Amino acid sequence: MANARKELSDFIETTADKVYFIENEERPYQPKYRELFRSVNIPGREIMISSATHNINFQKRIDGEPLVYTDPTSGRRVFGKKELYTAGTKIPDRFTNGLDVRRPSDELKNYIRDWTQAAINRYHLDLETFAFDHFNKGGLTAGDPIFDGTNDVQEDKNGGLLYDGSPLFNLAASPRTLLKKPPHLSTNAFNNGLGSTGQNLTSENFETAYQKLTMDNAYNDAGEKTMRLPTHLVVPPSLRSDAFQILKTSVGLPGDVNNGANPNFEIVDMALSPFLDDADAWFLYAADGSWEIFDQEQPRFKSWINNDTDCYHLRMEVAYGSLIKAWQNVVGANFATS
User: Fold this and answer.
1) Total domain count for the chain?
2) Residue 252, pLDDT score
């Protein structure tokens, strides 16, 4: 009896694994969030890096002079983690009672397939929701757990804020600072939010955001100049027409400024997502690898029998999370702040 039960549990798990492999091989679309996030895996469940690890500074030096090394411990601590999520189903008794696993019924195979397909689809939708919630919740002044890197090993003292103690998107009235002020600037006050309201997606506001991302905020935590060029205009479906006019209209009327030519024609791609909550929020974004999503760990399927009810169960367990290494690669407008 025990061997028969194990064989059936193994069959259920193996069938679900095969469905997952086929579904992912034949999936007709690529997740939208992967245009913006770098899709990676990490060993274990958490990661901590320093914001100064890769702040390289070449120094003019005569042969024989000592080299000043980058101190990887001098930066801010940047946390990322994966968390576990589980979905499960109770397999109806009629599919398993008295079953010979050498000849499993089509009803059982179809049930496992249908449930696993539905679970995989829900998993991909949850990943889209999770990824775009970084935009939805990035301006909350009290922070949000999605940015909290606290885990069983270490505490993220910034809680639900970014590694510098500010929201992902901040306004000019609440400036953030770099760890080291750029030496040629008179201020160490920065922001990457045009405004929480009243900053609609127009050509003028797009130009302002472009200037802020490529020039005003183009410094790293060591105060050194960097190069960031936006790659995407991230918008909800409600702003599709506005984004199209800015990015896809090539020529206007003769005699207009620049003879009607649009300098922003196809300058970035449109990233349209129904997973953005605010109908008027928009974001200019540089996909430079600064945002990572940990989604490469293969789901685990587990089947077991409840000895009290004599029923078989199947669960799908997944783990995913994120790491935000820079706020400088995005400028937002009309985002929620509370």
Assistant:
1) 1
2) 63
